[in-house]
Amino acid sequence: MSELIPVFIFFFAVIDPIGSVPVFIATTTGFDAKAKRHIAYKAIIAATGILLFFIVAGEYILSAMGIPLSAFEIAGGIVLFLFALTMIFGEGKASNELRMAKSKTETAIFPLAVPSIASPGAMLAAVMLTENDRYSLAEQATTTGVMLTVLVITLILLLTAAPIHRVIGNGGANIVSRVMGLILASLATASILEGIKTYFSL
Q1: Burial track 131-151 (b if 16+ CB lie within 10 A, e otherwise)
Q2: Rounded to 10 degrees, what is the CA torsion of 15, 17, 20, 25?
Q3: What pLDDT digit, counting tens, does each position of 42-63 carry?
């Protein structure tokens, strides 16, 4: 159990269930309650599929392309940092994405499934925490179970986003979005620094 807690915390930070709530609220404003539920389920299914793909094949793809995990960590951190900047200084985490989403499926895939839930950091975590050389098959299966638990928590928060929105309002959602952007920026910076440290063996 003591080994699972850090894994859970790490996945909770990179998947960011709480931070996905304002994104869901912003991108589903024009849909009814039934459509919102469908969008939530589709987003979680898509994000789960993407993260499971990275667990199964991510390391092999990187190895085949000659890309070290540290380089992937740096690249993921940069993408995550740029995404965080749009949350902090832009019109809101999902303002531009909202204008691009025209259907339930499009909204569920972008920006909810990617990059809000299955973020670059989450993809990175899926690869790093299931390295074949460091973890046994049983440990990888346990890590996968922890990740799925966080995704279930994310789904529950998305399905209860409406009452949350009634409490915090649009202004509160905007504040949460910008605060989470700052947290994501910090997480991205840590990822970049760790990648540089690993790559140069500092």
Answers
A1: eeeeeeeeebebbbebbeebb
A2: 160
A3: 999 999 999 999 999 988 888 8
